[in-house]
Amino acid sequence: xxxxxEDGPALRATLIxxxxxMNVAGINVNKAGNVSVRCRRGSRExxxxxxxxxxxxxxxxxxxxxxxxxxxxxxxxRTCSSEWRFHFDALRTRPEFNAVVHTHSPxxxxxxxxxxxxxxxxxxxxxxxxxxxRCAPYATFGTQELSDHxxxxxxxxxxxxxxHHGVVACGTSLAAALRLAIEVENLxxxxxxxxxxxxxxxxxxxxxxxxxxKFASYGQHAEQDGDGPS
Length: 230
Known about the structure:
The protein is of the alpha+beta class. It has helices at 9-24, 84-93, 106-112, 144-153, 174-195, 205-217; strands at 34-41, 44-49, 65-68, 74-75, 99-103, 135-136, 159-162, 166-171. Helices cover 34% and strands 16% of the residues.
């Protein structure tokens, strides 16, 4: 795990930039989605997360909410995102993650509305850490049940879909999590296009194992999860 950043103006500004970048990239609209980043306040480890129901363009650094990882206790003047539970659970149980990006990106969400994940139709599916990108079962937004489903779908993965909802993408940094969320949406778009010709064939387990092995040592991949060979 990389060093944990201290909560402060620079980190808060980067989190807000990431939230705004979701909409610019077309993977989110209006106030949907949410973003978090692991940080610390002195000896207290926690996470910063976007507040609920506020337009990203109007966010200021003081609007972000700090949650202690020890107990989920919030601190700040705003109410945190309604989806804080899966951000909290992902960062609490997966020390390799430092950031979580949640979007309602259109193509991935369309797949999730049918309960479909993304199979190994393209080798880049491995960018999410495994041989497929799973779709977690539906549960009401903001519930512990939804978080539990998301954690199961993220087991051994860096991203998953949420049925009838959207995407969760995790990374070693805010930039990495955002890149992965964009890549998941791109894969979903290509997969939906390929399905217009019929269900596409998938790469077998042995080939995906080779791809995953190559991804592990490709270029600066360790610092740039969310990217694949170019």
